[in-house]
């Protein structure tokens, strides 16, 4: 086959490469001219790759800054500085499950919350920072989302425990208040009730706005609320898909998380016929679709995508606890049945129960161990099977204790850019 190149200028002054022997013959271009064109195309291509790499590196730096500080559990926490991770011992937060933390782009702590109280960077309660209607025993009791086009304003979304009446609400923090230490300026704006304990956010495809995603109780409806510079749209995009989250209230328990690139969601269902769900997410429309249901894991709780989006990790504890394990699914295995069959236990825990799995800025995953001075660590989460390297006592918390939760972060300020596996 004869390779031929035609360099056309589009509106971005990029070169398009055509490989078509018929077109080549029609053009009848001299070989020397073709080689010149090929050289110009490759120069442009390399330039494009360089720009793309710079964009990715700047995105990763942005993401790592805002997720540099973690506050969770019984006064526990972590600080990430490059490859160095340090235990935090000055936290005022005590929570059985959910929490949220936000830092600035340079990695300096701004504030943290358990969904009830908001503490500033000096570990003091913010003005008006009590009485939020989350619950410290809710899986994802809080989620902090920056307001688009307003660097100093943040939303705190909260969920109640086990589908109770407080439901899904939001409050507002303005960091310009209280001499730059921040204050809560609006509290507990109602969105919907009852809702499950699931709560996450994904950056809109315009890379400016946000989708805040929750799940309605006694329903299979995922709800995506659009957050723009104008505020929170209280009319969500509803997607009726996947398992019904309802019945016994404990079925409201479990994490909802995005893939690193925001094109997928995964949910853990504590007590349901389907214990893990993987779904597609449309970042332009807010629609959820194409569920993959993974069954047979009692007391499923935490869930997390690998940095490259090709693996899914989940935690399950067995009925009544006492069989705490981390399961890995290969999302590239094929269809639903093949993904289910790919499941492998990559680690067992000495804790009666384990909870959240969270990806750190250093590319490792951290596993919450209930009432324990250690976090579990998955050192190589992109690796297949036990090559992922789970260590049950992987990180010592400096005498503080973990519980079931780790901080809840939106996709788009999470650790690094990722890609999505080709599932189904």
From TrEMBL:
Pfam family, one: PD40
InterPro entries on file: WD40 (IPR011659), WD40/YVTN_repeat-like_dom_sf (IPR015943)
Record organism: Pontibacter ramchanderi
Protein name as it appears in the record: WD40 repeat protein
């Amino acid at each position: 086959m004869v390779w031929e190149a035609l360099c056309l200028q589009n509106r971005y002054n990029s070169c398009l490469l055509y490989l078509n022997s018929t077109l080549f013959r029609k053009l009848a271009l001299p070989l020397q001219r073709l080689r010149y064109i090929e050289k110009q195309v490759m120069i442009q291509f390399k330039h494009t790759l360089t720009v793309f790499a710079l964009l990715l590196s700047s995105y990763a730096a942005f993401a790592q800054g805002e997720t540099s500080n973690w506050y969770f559990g019984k006064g526990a926490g972590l600080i990430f500085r490059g490859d160095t991770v340090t235990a935090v011992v000055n936290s005022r937060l005590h929570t059985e499950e959910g929490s949220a933390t936000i830092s600035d782009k340079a990695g300096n702590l701004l504030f943290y919350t358990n969904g009830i109280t908001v503490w500033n960077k000096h570990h003091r309660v913010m003005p008006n920072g009590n009485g939020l209607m989350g619950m410290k025993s809710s899986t994802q009791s809080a989620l902090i989302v920056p307001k688009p086009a307003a660097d100093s304003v943040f939303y705190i979304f909260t969920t109640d425990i086990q589908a109770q009446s407080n439901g899904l609400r939001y409050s507002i923090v303005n960091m310009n208040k209280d001499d730059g230490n921040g204050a809560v300026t609006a509290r507990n704006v109602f969105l919907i009730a009852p809702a499950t304990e699931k709560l996450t956010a994904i950056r809109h495809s315009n890379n400016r706005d946000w989708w805040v995603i929750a799940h309605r109780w006694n329903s299979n409806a995922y709800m995506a609320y659009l957050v723009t510079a104008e505020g929170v749209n209280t009319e969500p995009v509803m997607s009726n898909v996947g398992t019904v989250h309802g019945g016994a209230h404990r079925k409201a328990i479990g994490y909802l998380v995005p893939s690193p690139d925001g094109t997928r969601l995964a949910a853990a269902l504590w007590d349901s016929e389907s214990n893990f769900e993987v779904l597609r997410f449309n970042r332009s429309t807010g629609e959820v679709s194409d569920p993959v249901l993974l069954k047979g894991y009692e007391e499923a709780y935490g869930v997390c995508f690998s940095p490259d989006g090709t693996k899914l990790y989940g935690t399950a504890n067995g009925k009544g606890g006492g069989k705490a394990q981390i399961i890995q699914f290969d999302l590239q295995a094929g269809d639903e049945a093949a993904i289910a069959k790919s499941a492998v236990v990559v680690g067992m825990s000495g804790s009666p129960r384990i909870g959240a799995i969270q990806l750190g800025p250093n590319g490792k995953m951290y596993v919450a161990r209930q009432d324990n001075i250690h976090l579990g660590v998955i050192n190589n989460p992109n690796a297949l099977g036990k090559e992922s390297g789970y260590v049950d006592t992987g990180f010592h918390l400096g005498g503080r204790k973990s519980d079931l939760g780790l901080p809840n972060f939106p996709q788009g300020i999470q650790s690094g850019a990722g890609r999505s596996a080709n599932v189904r």
